[in-house]
Fold:
Amino acid sequence: MVQHESGGNPHAYNGWDANAAAGTPSEGIAQVIGPTFSTYSLPGYGNIWNPVDNMIAAFRYAISRYGSMNNIPGVVAVRGGGSYIGY
Structure:
């Protein structure tokens, strides 16, 4: 997931997609938007640019939304031989 979202770059910043156009660019290694990060980060892990903090929020969000990391549409697509779909 990280390879597809940010290429493994903890300082990745997406200023061009629909989230960015809405004022909430995707940031960090897992490309989390600010409001999602705020909702799903844990106390003491509040730096969106820290890879661990970013991944915690991303995993918690994905599990909340999809029930499991295995159910993320992009993961399902790649596992089935298709192209990655961003979460």
Notes: The longest strand covers residues 13-14. Residues 2-79 form one domain. The helical segments are 2-6, 18-21, 34-40, 51-66, 73-79.
